[in-house]
Design brief:
With 176 residues, the chain is an alpha+beta fold. The protein has a domain of 117 residues. The chain is 31% helix and 35% strand. It is built from one helix and eleven strands; from the N terminus they run ββαβββββββββ. The strands form three sheets. Strands 7-6-5-4-3-11 form a six-stranded mixed sheet, covered by helices on one side. The longest helix has 54 residues. The radius of gyration is 32 Å and the shape is rod-shaped. It starts with a strand and ends with a strand.
């Protein structure tokens, strides 16, 4: 309380806040700001992970569609017998050869025609994937599993099966 000089009576309003009140208000405000920043950060992290998951799913669907079209149009399909091969699946077609080879973050489709330059198409994933190709009867399968990392994301698993056309031949590894 303070005394009014003109009228000689005490006034109930104060001129300012005490240091304790100021510290309490600043602490409360900083807690609220920290919680808000933490919530925004978590939201951005979730958005980033969901964007990567959606991009991986789109890439896997694009890869499956292209592999199935190539295998169905093939005259002969060879799949790598050993992991030391530079390619996973080699497809001989009437208009050239299509090769699926591993890259650091996915697969690469290389089309070689008798005339002209080879064309390339990349199927890139958000994390490293190990690939295995297999042939069984009229089916060619390509399986990929993400390499274990320390992220909290579930493992990426891609399984693609493609059926050969009746006229096509399936060859294991380097067989002619």
């Amino acid at each position: 309380m303070r005394r009014d000089r003109r009228h000689g009576r005490f006034d109930a309003c104060r001129a300012g806040a005490s240091l304790v009140e100021l510290l309490a208000a600043m602490t409360a405000a900083s807690v609220v700001m920290s919680a808000a920043v933490s919530l925004v950060h978590r939201g951005y992290a979730l958005e980033s992970r969901s964007r990567q998951t959606i991009a991986d799913e789109r890439t896997a669907l694009r890869l499956a569609r292209q592999l199935r079209a190539d295998v169905h149009a093939a005259d002969r399909v060879r799949w790598a017998a050993a992991s030391d091969e530079p390619w996973l699946i080699m497809i001989d077609m009437p208009l050239g050869t299509v090769t699926y080879a591993t890259t650091a973050m996915g697969l690469e489709r290389i089309v070689k025609r008798p005339v002209g330059m080879p064309s390339r198409e990349d199927f890139t994933f958000s994390r490293q994937v190990s690939w295995v190709a297999h042939g069984d009867g009229p089916l060619v399968s390509l399986s990929g599993t993400s390499v274990a990392d320390r992220s909290r994301r579930p493992p990426l698993v891609v399984d693609i099966a493609a059926a050969l056309a009746p006229r096509a031949k399936l060859v294991h590894g380097g067989e002619p």
